[in-house]
Design a protein that fits this description.
rod-shaped; about 70 residues; 2 helices
C-alpha cells in the first residue's frame, strides 16, 4: 500500500509545467494528450486547493488582528 505524499505548490507547478511541455510536442497521440490533459486538470485542482488553504489562513490571521505576511 502506498501513501500519497503531499506535494508543495512549487512541486505541483513544476509537474504541471512538464505536462504542458509534453502536450506541446508534435508527435503526441490523441490518447496520450487526453491522459496528460486529465493529469493536468488534477494538478490544477490540487494547486487551487493548496492556494485556497493558504488564503484562508492569511484571512484568519487578518481577522484576529495578528501578523500577516505577503
Amino acid at each position: 500500500m502506498s501513501e500519497k505524499k503531499t506535494q508543495s505548490l512549487e512541486e505541483l507547478f513544476e509537474i504541471l509545467d512538464q505536462v504542458v511541455s509534453k502536450l506541446e510536442e508534435d508527435d503526441i497521440t490523441l490518447e496520450e494528450s487526453f491522459n496528460l490533459y486529465q493529469q493536468g486538470m488534477e494538478l490544477l485542482k490540487q494547486c487551487n486547493k493548496s492556494i485556497d488553504t493558504v488564503e484562508k489562513k492569511v484571512r484568519l490571521l487578518d481577522e484576529k488582528g495578528e501578523y500577516h505576511e505577503f
